[in-house]
Every structure is written in structure tokens, then in C-alpha cells.
């Protein structure tokens, strides 16, 4: 039984998993928040997709003999169409747009000439399999260096950007995900490649002010659509509101020289001279211009500001501090001479009551089941009284810090974003 | 959109209907009309990755009747699934009292497997209804 809103998803995902004729019955949507009496009316009423009585349909699904199609076994190859398309440039733009290959912005058409130029950006063979990607709980698609090059060209990337694109592709992380939550994704770029490719990590670091920041982020979304089959509304994308950050994601080149702390990739075990891309997933980024002192106030309390922000986030995802160098330098002056000290303070001082924790959507769906099988800290949290005070995030590792920006003012931003993986860019040169 | 059209969008239907691969490719190129070759035109590559083949799974044989049978009602853990399945349980009690229902919440978050429960259902049950709320 599935609610009507997920009809296409249920049918298509069953098919992808080998059951194209799975017997699925539908109830009205939503069920969440309805009283037992309201849900009883659903159960006693019709299936909103077929119009037939729902419970008769369910009983029939369990008792009507199988058709020949339902008994089929064997292997079915799924086609994605011919390897090339030929038409005028204008018609091809329209064709790519109408077939869901784009982000609905104009693209650079991936001609063989442009693909060949992009392939010169790496020493890897065009036919090398880079990885697999799935935009949710679906069977993953695979792709070669050549197939990755197509999305890189379409996004407007230069060939010298290609190793970063390949590093992202090799992670298998899609930047479009099928959750109803409308996830956002972010990447941190570290290493000398930031200067070589002219990433912007100064004024307007998170804005549309550099080709590398703009097109590499866009390529991640185009790869997620084309290589991971993501971003098909109703099928592989269910975000109710969607997320504007999905156009080119949050691309953060760290301002390593201006930061008072070690850069992010060094914290993850890489050498400073290595080039690394680190990926994050979560719900988005919010501004940090909040209470507890302004930037002009010598007593400005960035630690409390950040804690205020993070207390409004879901602890299911992580907390990413995106600090302008002025913020980071001030925090260091206030005693946080290491990132670890700041993280320890935030972990201990960003708190909630058990009652509030249990009321949260993510707690019931994702963490309560883990508590039931004894996973900590959730097992302990669910045993505590409602008025007990617990950390807002499950562990200190939920927090991460990156420094970027042009030092025109001391403002942080905060991401409700979890760290996923760091990948060497150098391996793909 | 009906199931046949949905499966066609997946590039599945032509293959399932045993058409040739060439025909399947021609049809599954997309929603828009396929571009046309000719003078003054350019050629571009298909940007899609490679989907895995689908291994068809024959569905389990159906029961002759539910009378006297045990039906498991499995809650995947989404909000409202439990309320929905308890109403299904109540419906069986009112309308098909010879059916024994067993309610279970699947272990772990919704996307995780629960082999222990699947074994219990195979050992003790005759059918299963799984429900997601939301």
C-alpha cells in the first residue's frame, strides 16, 4: 500500500527492481497527521488511482492468480536511446531540454569535438569506468570517463576542471536526491588547485563570481541527472518544495591563507599541498547575522550566534560553519585556538529537551528505529525523561568548519549539512 | 499516467514486449521528437550513463483464499503507516474475521533490510501487506 502522491515512484521503482507488475494499491495522501477515523474512511473507500474499493483490491492482489507477465523471469536491458543525435544547434538545445538532460538553462552542446577537448583534461582512458551513482534507493547507474565528460561540457566547464568533475563522479554521490525533503549539497575545494583554476574564495565566495565555482557546481547536478538518473520529478525526485541550491550546489573554495586554523582537507588526513574535494549533504544554508551582538560590537559572541542557529536545525544532519576569515580570527582571539575547541563548545552548549527531540520528524523515522536496536546515543535518549536536556546533535563529529570569504565584514553562514566524503582530485589528473 | 506509459518512460516497455533492441532504442530516446540528420547540422553525444539490466523476479504464487490464513501487516516506519495498518487490521476483524493479522514495525529506518522479519513471515505467515504512510 502506497499513498497516491507516490504512485509513479512506487511503480517505477518496483520495475527497476525486477517487478514491473508488482501489485500496488493506493490510499489518499497524506496519511500522516490524520485521525484513525479519517484513515478508516480511506481504508473503507476507493483506491484513488483505480476508483475500485481499496480493501477488495488488496484481497484480490493476494488471491487472484498470477498472469503470464507476472510470472516472467530473465534479464531486460534498459535503453537510454541512441549514442548520438544530429540536428541544428537550436533544435538540439530544445531536444536536450525536453528530454530532461539539462537543468533547464542553456547548455554547451556536447559535440564530439568538445568531448575530445574535455578528455584532454585527464590522463585516464575515456573508457575507464569511473563509478556508479544513484539518486536515492534505486539501482545505481554506471559511467565512464567519456560519459562524465558530456556533463562537464554541458555545464560549461573548461578541460582543466575535469579532474575535479571526475573526483566528484568517482564518489558516487548524486547532488539530487529523491527524498521529499528537498536536499541541498555542498562541496569544499582545498589545495593549490584553487588558485590554479581561479576559484573565488574572496569577496562573494559563495556567489556567481567565478567560472570554476559556477560550472563545477553545475556539472555535479547535470551528472546527477544524466549519469545517476536523478532529478525526474515523481520518479527519482520527490522534494516537495525543491531547492534552489540544486542549480549549482554550494561550492566552497576554502580561503586557506586567511584562516587561522588548518584547512579542511588537512583535518581529513590529506597533506596541505594535495588537491581535494569534500562533499556534504543536508537541507541548506542560512545566514548568520543573528542576535547576541553585531559585528560592530566588540563583545560579539559568534559561538552563541552559531549555537542559536544550530538549535533550529535538525540534528539528523550535521552543522557546517561557513566562516568569513574575520569571524574565524575573532573566534581564535576569544580562545578557540583550534577548531576542535569550538566544536566541543558547540556540541555541549547546543541542547534540547528530550520532549522536543522526540517531537521531531527525523527522530521518529530514522533514529527511533536505531534506538530500538540499541544504537547510541539514541537508545539512551529515548530512555530519558521528557524534561532531560540532551545535545542537539548526536556527536561532536556532526560539526564541521570551513573558512572562506573576502573579509568585508564578520558574518558567518551555517549549513545544516553532513560531511560525506573527501576525494583526491590529483588521482584524476 | 498509467503503468504501461510509466514503464515506457523507463525504457522498459518495448523490451518487455519483445520488440527488437533497435526499435526499443528509437522509441525510448525521449519525450521529444528525435532530432533529424541532414546538411548544416551538428552531431552531439547522448549524455546519459549506463543503467543496469533488470533481472525480472517472478511474483510469488497467490493464495486461493485468505480464509483461515495469517496476513502480516508490515509498517515501514513512515509517519502514519501504523495508523493505516491498524485500520486495515480492524477492517479484517470486521469483514473477514477468519483472517489472522499480525502487525509488525520493520526494524531499522525505512530503507534498511530486515531479514529476520522476512524469515518470520515466511515461517509463520501466508501473505504480507506492506504499507508506507507519509
End-to-end distance of chain A: 49 Å
- Tally of individual domains of chain A: 2
Average of the residue pLDDT scores of chain B: 83
Helix content of chain B: 25-40%
How do the helices and strands follow one another from N- to C-terminus of chain B? HHHEEEHEHE
Contiguous helical run count of chain A:
16
For the largest interface, the chains and their residue counts are: A-B, 100 and 81 residues
**Rg of chain A (CA only):** 24 Å
Separation of termini of chain B? 21 Å
Query: Can you list the strand order of the major beta sheet of chain A?
Result: 8-7-9-14-10-13
- How would you describe the shape of chain A? flat
Radius of gyration of chain B: 22 Å
Oligomeric assembly = heterodimer
> Globular, elongated, flat, extended or rod-shaped: what is the shape of chain B?
elongated
- Compressed to H and E, one letter per element, the order of chain A equals EHEHHEEHHEEHHEHHEHEHEHHEHHHEEE
Which consecutive residue ranges of chain B, at least 5 long each, have pLDDT under 50? 14-30
Number of strands of chain B: 5
Q: What is the percent of helical residues of chain A?
A: 25-40%
Across the major sheet of chain B, the strand order is: 4-3-5
Q: Give the biggest beta sheet of chain B.
A: 3 strands, parallel
DSSP E strands of chain A, number: 14
Amino acid at each position: 500500500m502506497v499513498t497516491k502522491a507516490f504512485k509513479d515512484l512506487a511503480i517505477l521503482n518496483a520495475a527497476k527492481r525486477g517487478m514491473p507488475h508488482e501489485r500496488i494499491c493506493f490510499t489518499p495522501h497524506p496519511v500522516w497527521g490524520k485521525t484513525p477515523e479519517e484513515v478508516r474512511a480511506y481504508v473503507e473507500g476507493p483506491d484513488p488511482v483505480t476508483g475500485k474499493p481499496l480493501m477488495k483490491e488488496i484481497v484480490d492482489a493476494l488471491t487472484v492468480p498470477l498472469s503470464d507477465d507476472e510470472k516472467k523471469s530473465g534479464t531486460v536491458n534498459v535503453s537510454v536511446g541512441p549514442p548520438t543525435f544530429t540536428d541544428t544547434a537550436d533544435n538540439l538545445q530544445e531536444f536536450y531540454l525536453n528530454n530532461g538532460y539539462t537543468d533547464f538553462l542553456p547548455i554547451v552542446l556536447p559535440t564530439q569535438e568538445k568531448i575530445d577537448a574535455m578528455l584532454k583534461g585527464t590522463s585516464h582512458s575515456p573508457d575507464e569506468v569511473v563509478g556508479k551513482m544513484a539518486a536515492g534507493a534505486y539501482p545505481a547507474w554506471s559511467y565512464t570517463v567519456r560519459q562524465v565528460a558530456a556533463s562537464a561540457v554541458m555545464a560549461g566547464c573548461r578541460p582543466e576542471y575535469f579532474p575535479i568533475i571526475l573526483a566528484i563522479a568517482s564518489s558516487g554521490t548524486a547532488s539530487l536526491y529523491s527524498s521529499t525533503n528537498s536536499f541541498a549539497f555542498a562541496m569544499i575545494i582545498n589545495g593549490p588547485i584553487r588558485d590554479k583554476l581561479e576559484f573565488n574564495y574572496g569577496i562573494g565566495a559563495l556567489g556567481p563570481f567565478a567560472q570554476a565555482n559556477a560550472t563545477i557546481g553545475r556539472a555535479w547536478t547535470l551528472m546527477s541527472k544524466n549519469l545517476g538518473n536523478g532529478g525526474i520529478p515523481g520518479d527519482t525526485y520527490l522534494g516537495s518544495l525543491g531547492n534552489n541550491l540544486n542549480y549549482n550546489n554550494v561550492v566552497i573554495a576554502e580561503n586557506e591563507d586567511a584562516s587561522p586554523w588548518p584547512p579542511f582537507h588537512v583535518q581529513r588526513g590529506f597533506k596541505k599541498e594535495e588537491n581535494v574535494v569534500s562533499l556534504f549533504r543536508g537541507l541548506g544554508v542560512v545566514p548568520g547575522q543573528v542576535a547576541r551582538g553585531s559585528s560592530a560590537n566588540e563583545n560579539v559572541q559568534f559561538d552563541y550566534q552559531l549555537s542559536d542557529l544550530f538549535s533550529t536545525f535538525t540534528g539528523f544532519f550535521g552543522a557546517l560553519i561557513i566562516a568569513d576569515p574575520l569571524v574565524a580570527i575573532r573566534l581564535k582571539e576569544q580562545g578557540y585556538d583550534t577548531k576542535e575547541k569550538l566544536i566541543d563548545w558547540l556540541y555541549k552548549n547546543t541542547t534540547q529537551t528530550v520532549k522536543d527531540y522526540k517531537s521531531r520528524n527525523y527522530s521518529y523515522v530514522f533514529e527511533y528505529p536505531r534506538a530500538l536496536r540499541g544504537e547510541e546515543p539514541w537508545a539512551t535518549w529515548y530512555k530519558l525523561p521528557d524534561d532531560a536536556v540532551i545535545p542537539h546533535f548526536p556527536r561532536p563529529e556532526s560539526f564541521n568548519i570551513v573558512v572562506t570569504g573576502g573579509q568585508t565584514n564578520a558574518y558567518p553562514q551555517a549549513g545544516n549539512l553532513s560531511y560525506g566524503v573527501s576525494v583526491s582530485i590529483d588521482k584524476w589528473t | 499516467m498509467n503503468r504501461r506509459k510509466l514503464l515506457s518512460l523507463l525504457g522498459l516497455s518495448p523490451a518487455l514486449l519483445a520488440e527488437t533492441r533497435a526499435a526499443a532504442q528509437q522509441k525510448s530516446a525521449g519525450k521529444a521528437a528525435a532530432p533529424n540528420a541532414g546538411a548544416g547540422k551538428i552531431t552531439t553525444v547522448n549524455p546519459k550513463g549506463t543503467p543496469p539490466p533488470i533481472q525480472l523476479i517472478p511474483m510469488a504464487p497467490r493464495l486461493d483464499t485468505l480464509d483461515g490464513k495469517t496476513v502480516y501487516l508490515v509498517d515501514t516506519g513512515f509517519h502514519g503507516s501504523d495508523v493505516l495498518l491498524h485500520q486495515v487490521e480492524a477492517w479484517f476483524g470486521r469483514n473477514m474475521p477468519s483472517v489472522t493479522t499480525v502487525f509488525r514495525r520493520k526494524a531499522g529506518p525505512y530503507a534498511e533490510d530486515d531479514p529476520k522479519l522476512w524469515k518470520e513471515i515466511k515461517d509463520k505467515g501466508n501473505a504480507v501487506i506492506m504499507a508506507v504512510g507519509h
